[in-house]
Amino acid sequence: MDDGPYYLDDLSVGQRFTTGEYVLDADGAVAFASQWDPQPFHTDKEAAAGTFFGELVASGWYTAAITMRLLVEGLPIAGGVIGAGGEIAWPTPTRPGAVLHVEAEVLEVRPSRSRPDRGMAVVRFETVDRDGAVAQVFTATMVVPRRPAPEDAGT
Amino acid sequence: MDDGPYYLDDLSVGQRFTTGEYVLDADGAVAFASQWDPQPFHTDKEAAAGTFFGELVASGWYTAAITMRLLVEGLPIAGGVIGAGGEIAWPTPTRPGAVLHVEAEVLEVRPSRSRPDRGMAVVRFETVDRDGAVAQVFTATMVVPRRPAPEDAGT
């Protein structure tokens, strides 16, 4: 497959994509969590020891943000990476030092009946560490434009 | 109900909580998206005009981050606000200027069979603007500790 941009017409069930990598380090994890998820197990190595996790782990929303950035950089969908929502899970806590990438698999491709210029694609995004540990699974419904008909078609 | 912290034993189906407010402004939305969701409809008012949204809108992940911060500040669950995952949706695009708060409703409370010190609570979190527009719905499975038995019980 070429490098895109991909229209709905270019997607098919079972198709896979892989993004580049992002190093989730402690400084980044603590900075993000201090602003958006300020809980001791995300912001303070010492204090984290006495919590549910027992150690400093990344906020799931930091993993989600990193995942989105990897997708914007690595998944050239025509019109942009636009999700309507989906099912998100963080199967294992993610520790600083994780080197994450996203593995995507197209599960469903559905042209819109009411809007001929677009459709929906259901895509499973697994955010994984180099050792295969799954930091996040996001099965999302994406809004994807149809490929425009050539202006001169049929002439 | 008192101000917490809430253990699983303090939660019941139908219980509701409301958080404080957060003003989602354009500077914050653009700063977040520039780092985590760098697409023109999230980062550039002029360029956004020619996109799917037709105007600058907040990244759904920014709404998610704001939601989490409001919950950490406003939902005093014992041990912290810890989600295993859930279903997330952004029913309407959120424009800068939105003043968001979160309305939570407990849908399910389930003590763990294997771990007597904890359980799961399913909670629906609606992130809403002052005019009632729903920016995000997150129906999450939370990990919540049981209330510890008093040391001197039965003496």
Strand order of the largest sheet of chain A: 1-3-4-5-2
Task: Give the amount of beta strand of chain A, in percent.
Answer: 25-35%
Radius of gyration of chain A: 18 Å
Euclidean distance between termini CA atoms of chain A: 29 Å
Per DSSP E runs of 2 or more residues, the count of β-strands of chain A stands at 5
Stretches with pLDDT under 50, minimum 5 residues of chain A: none
The largest inter-chain interface, given as chain pair and residues per side, is: A-B, 33 and 33 residues
Strand count, sense and barrel status of the largest sheet of chain A are: 5 strands, antiparallel
- Oligomer class: homodimer
Mean pLDDT rating of chain A: 94
Judged by helices, strands and strand pairing, the structural class of chain A is alpha+beta
Helix content of chain A: 10-25%
The succession of helices and strands of chain A, N to C, reads EHHHHEEEE
Helix tally of chain A? 4
Global geometry of chain A: elongated
